[in-house]
Amino acid sequence: MAKSTRQAWQLLMRHSLTRPSEEASQYAKIYRLLTNFLDNLQVAIDVSGNGQLPWPASTEPDSSTLFHDITLFLTSESHNFTISNGTKPASNTSYVGPVLDLEPSSTVKHVNWIWPECLVGDGSDSEDSARGAYNISMHQSFRWNGTDYYTVFDLPISVTNSIPDSDDRIDCDLLENKLLSAAEIGESSDSLPGQPWVEGGATTVSTPDATGTGAGNRCHSGFKRVAGLAIATTAILHFLGPVCQEHYIAYIATDPDIDTKLSTRSLSMTLLSASRRVLRYRIARALIIIFTIWNLAEIHLIHHRIYEADYTVLRRRPQKQERIYIASINWNNELVLRSHWNKALTQLVLKLGPENVFISIYESGSYDNTKGALRELDWELERMRVPRNITLSPVTHEDELAAPAMGEGWIRTPDGKKQLRRIPYLARIRNLSLLPLQDLARQGITFDKILFLNDVVFTPNDVLRLLDTNDGEYGAACSLDFSKPPSFYDTFALRDSNGHEPIMQKWPYFSSAASRHGMKNMSPVPVASCWNGMGMVTSIQEIVA
Asked: Which Pfam families does the record associate with it (predicted)?
């Protein structure tokens, strides 16, 4: 054989063991496939190896390079139809024919196959139709360098387009190749050189993952069982899994004396590449499964901990008779006071004991009837004999703005108007709610903790749970408040254990690992600062001073 021709054959055989998208992927190459025509399936096959092989090919029986045959089939999980081959249906000899006999002067063979009756449809699903997912399966039998080979190449297509009925359509039973048993395959005389199901037609070659025949022992044995009369359906590909699906080509050598160095190396590289792809696929699938199970387990655990926290039997009053100073500032809170807040506060007093609390409430500037709601609360606390100080300031918001702008509690807007700065203003009002602490301290009345209550919906158990945070060992402890669950509301002052702002208003809120761990375990969450719906403070002496 001439050197250039031999190199061309080597190139083609090397590529015949790789994915079909690469250049010269096999001896004959499907380079065009049209399935959108209504009446025909059109397949164009280049038999020149991208112009590197001489044409017409030799017809001498003893030639070292020889094309035996090309056969085409349309295969699915339940069907195997002949598209074009040398074994014509007996009742319709004009319907199909040998591919190599088409267009003798051309290296491109055009197969124009009329869809059979069972694939007729309007594009919609039908239970009785054979339409759906198929493979165009091309079987090649050829000789290279004196050795006979047989390759199988599957190209997936989907028969879902509209195919009208016609008198030219053939009964599918005439084109159907039935699945043969092993005995029927052994008795069959319809074979070509190099076919793996022919007695003695396979050579064992070394592979990196197994000792087998052709493209690996697992794939070969699967093809051998079902390959009678070139029947290779996609059901087998589904059964064998991703390894064989990645190969695309079943490769068999027939002469035990040939030099298999090139083919073995190429085959080994292909199998190794396929094995790596399969390994990556399996690792990715395993990681996804582990990730899903882990998250489901974590969600279940978190919900279980929340359930336990909600239904934990809390003490009716602290084990140690702690004295609690309850402070609150109010502005335009009539609705929440009348619907929830007043009742929850009186229930909390009953649990803590009226003798163990002092309530200080400061209100000013409300536009609604907040003052009326607080007067009702004051009457109820009087009935319960609870020590308290409720200040209803007559100062309005307009009065605050009318005062001379002094100090850093003011800001001038771009339009030239002066406005109160929110935080300094709220801090001043908060301090007014703490003023009674000094008078009480001079009377010798002290407290263990200060509870700041904002205008939030709460229950007595919420306060008791906050009071017991970390067994009472903390400088300050805050709740999480939600305006529109599960979105956390008050992010202004909240900082995680690393001093960072919340990364989001939804779970898990924090970027700090320590803070996130506390959230997941329903345990105290370490933070650098907080001021939310409720806050418990233990540093009483510093505040009084």
From this structure: CAP59_mtransfer
For tokens 């529109």, name the residue. Answer: 484
Query: What is the pLDDT tens value at each position of the chain, 545 positions in all?
Result: 333 333 333 333 333 333 333 333 345 555 555 554 456 777 888 777 666 666 777 777 788 777 778 888 888 888 888 887 533 444 444 455 678 777 777 878 878 788 888 888 877 666 667 888 888 888 888 887 778 888 887 888 888 778 888 777 888 888 888 777 767 766 665 566 656 555 555 444 343 443 333 333 333 333 333 233 223 333 333 333 333 333 333 333 333 333 333 344 444 454 455 567 777 888 888 899 998 898 888 777 777 766 666 555 454 444 567 899 999 999 999 999 999 999 999 999 999 999 999 999 999 888 899 999 999 999 999 999 999 999 998 887 666 666 665 556 666 667 767 666 677 778 888 889 999 998 999 999 999 999 999 989 999 999 998 988 888 888 899 988 887 877 877 778 889 999 999 888 887 888 898 988 888 787 889 999 988 889 999 877 777 76
Nearest alpha-carbon partner for 535 in 502, 505, 494: 494
Name the amino acid, one letter, at 17. Answer: L
| pTM attached to this predicted model | 0.47
| DSSP bridge partners of 359 | 326, 388
- On whether residue 64 sits in a domain, the answer given is yes
Mark out the alpha helices in 188-250 (DSSP H runs).
217-226, 234-240, 242-247
Bond prior to 486 in cis (omega within 30° of 0): yes
439: domain CATH number is 3.90.550
Q: Is residue 410 part of a domain?
A: yes
Quick one: 351 and 228 in the same domain? no
Cα separation, 254 vs 313, whole angstroms = 80
Q: Tell me which residue range forms the domain holding 13.
A: 3-283
The backbone region for 534, taken as left when phi is positive above 0, alpha when psi lies in -120 to 50, beta otherwise, is beta
